[in-house]
Each structure stands twice: as structure tokens, then as C-alpha cells.
Design a protein that fits this description.
By secondary structure, the chain is α+β, with helices and mostly antiparallel strands. It contains one helix and nine strands, in the order ββαβββββββ. The strands form three sheets. It has a five-stranded antiparallel beta sheet with strand order 6-5-7-8-9, covered by helices on one side. It has a two-stranded antiparallel ribbon with strand order 1-2. The longest helix is centred in the middle third of the chain and has 51 residues.
């Protein structure tokens, strides 16, 4: 208990004042004052920002999708070139391994049967040319009387030609032109040319 007396315009306190505990917030963790008239604002994206973000994403996706046809065409071209190289190598190996009396480019499972051979191999001392059809896997199928209109199933057309004594005497220049797809017009085919020199 304490009493306060007023004497001559002054306040006098008698007795001990009780210790008061302060409940004010700590300066380190201030409590924001309540202000119902000014609610807290929440930040968010505006409509313009969302539209711009979607436009950027759409532009990027369009560019990426545009690369797929290019990559697919490149992969197909690489596969065709690999198969054409395989076909030309087959022909060159057969020509090198076969004497002039043997037959060139056997087809079918029974290579002993004379009916499965495409054409007799002329001597490299003479100029000659021939065309052979190959399937998708690069295996020889049949001779082509008209390379511009091959039979169904032919995917590659190999036009083989030999020029004797070129570039010098005793050597024959053998050229193989592999075209695909065989069923397309000649102007629309991909053409791969391979050349080698062989002893006559």
C-alpha cells in the first residue's frame, strides 16, 4: 500500500511502490501494431506477367519442336548413306574376288543355283555397265532391265560401270552409283557415288 499526498502543489509518495512487470514487446521481436483499416497486401503475378511468361515458353517449345524433323531427316540420310556404302563394298569385293569367268552378285538363299545369279561378270578389259536391285537390308534381289522402274520390294538401285585402261593402262575404273528410294522418280532419289580402281 502506498498513499499519495498533495502538499503545496507537489505530490508526495509514502510507502514503497510495488515492482511492476513490463509486458511490452522485446525490441528484437517487435509485434506489429494492429491496424484493421490497412490490411496486409499479398504480392502476386499480374495478368500481363503471366501472358508474357506463357509467350516465352510457347516460343521456346516451338523452336525445339522445329528441330525434330531436321534431326529425323538427318538420321534417315545417315542410315541410307551407311547402307549404300555397304552395297558398294559388296560389289567391289565380288569383283575383286571373282575371275572373269565367274558370275557377279548372287541373289537368294541358294547361290549355287545358276538362276539366282544376276549377270555374268564381263572382263574388266572391256567397258560394261549393269544395274542391280537391293532390298532394305542391302541384300541383292534381282537385275534391273529398267532402273527407272524397279520391281516392288527394291529399295536401292546400284548402277555398276567399268571403264578399262583408266586412268592408266592395265587398270579399270569401276564406279557404283547407289540410288534410293528406288520407287521414287530418278530426280527425287538420293545418289551416292563410289569409285575404285582394279587390275584388269
Amino acid at each position: 500500500m502506498h498513499r499519495i499526498f498533495r502538499m503545496n502543489g507537489m505530490l508526495e509518495t509514502r510507502g514503497e511502490l510495488p515492482c511492476l512487470t513490463s509486458h511490452s514487446p522485446s525490441p528484437k521481436n517487435p509485434v506489429p501494431p494492429e491496424n484493421p483499416g490497412n490490411p496486409v497486401k499479398i504480392s502476386a503475378f499480374s495478368l500481363i506477367e503471366v501472358v508474357l511468361a506463357l509467350a516465352v515458353i510457347a516460343f521456346a517449345i516451338t523452336g525445339i519442336m522445329g528441330l525434330f524433323p531436321v534431326a529425323l531427316k538427318s538420321a534417315q540420310e545417315s542410315q541410307r548413306e551407311t547402307r549404300a556404302t555397304f552395297i558398294a563394298q559388296q560389289i567391289f569385293n565380288d569383283l575383286k574376288a571373282s575371275p572373269s569367268t565367274n558370275l557377279l552378285i548372287a541373289t537368294g538363299a541358294n547361290v549355287v543355283d545358276q538362276g539366282n545369279f544376276v549377270t555374268p561378270r564381263p572382263s574388266l578389259v572391256d567397258a560394261w555397265s549393269n544395274s542391280v536391285g537391293f532390298d532394305q537390308s542391302g541384300m541383292p534381289m534381282q537385275p534391273l532391265a529398267n532402273p527407272a522402274s524397279p520391281q516392288p520390294g527394291v529399295i536401292f538401285v546400284a548402277n555398276i560401270s567399268s571403264t578399262p585402261n583408266t586412268p592408266t593402262s592395265g587398270l579399270a575404273r569401276v564406279q557404283v552409283d547407289v540410288e534410293t528410294p528406288a520407287q521414287a522418280a530418278a530426280t527425287n532419289r538420293s545418289k551416292y557415288t563410289f569409285v575404285t580402281l582394279m587390275r584388269q
